[in-house]
């Protein structure tokens, strides 16, 4: 039995919105508990506004929780993260433009992170960049390219390479393939799956797209209005969904079977 690398226990996040008489609260997460074991890819799926990104932001310390606890390898994660806490959990976003500085080449973007974390002597950085590009199956010729000169899929591979540069054990992918064409989505899904095997990575894979979650994840958590309504290994979830909301999500994806047939 593998150990949990990441756990959220009874996590709640409340936002204050509006001013004066219009002031109110949005409970973005309500007592959310989930875990990701070593080497596992766990899905978090739900409609837009269901609280997925809030969970991701709380996990990496960008969003304060109102209550509940987060753990990494059994240790409590405090709100104020150390550099080492930040190194071991990396995030990949929907739009690589938000994680890649448009002025920086691939090489510069990776050097910057390596230098911030001070984990490699300067003379070893270039070799490490080449190794990372090969890991994400990009040619070395892209080392000096800037984000605008690359395709969406290439940019997302660079964002993944950059995230991997610090040897994290845990990745959070928040809608990481949602902005890509279907064929490119499939190739990034395959890459994440390969990386899980070769690097023994654990991944929390966040998506509104059930078809993709079904292809990639070992287990799935379904979130609706800030609450996990169903949590199950992937196959039983699709074969025999227990919660009405899960059934509704599955039935509202007409292209699901077609996509699974095409990519399997
Ligand atoms: N900074 C914020 N201030 C106020 N409300 C927020 C903020 N961030 C998110 N929310 C609200 O919290 C809920 C969950 O949002 P989010 O986590 O972004 O959902 P998802 O990623 O599933 O689309 C939504 O109702 C959203 O409007
Ligand atoms: Mg989101």
From TrEMBL:
SMART domains: AAA. GO terms for molecular function: ATP binding; ATP hydrolysis activity. GO terms for biological process: peptide transport; transmembrane transport. PROSITE patterns: ABC_TRANSPORTER_1, ABC_TRANSPORTER_2. CDD domains: ABC_NikE_OppD_transporters. Keywords: ATP-binding, Nucleotide-binding, Transport. Residues 8-250 form the ABC transporter domain. The keyword ATP-binding applies. The keyword ATP-binding applies. Belongs to the ABC transporter superfamily. This is Unannotated protein. It comes from freshwater metagenome.
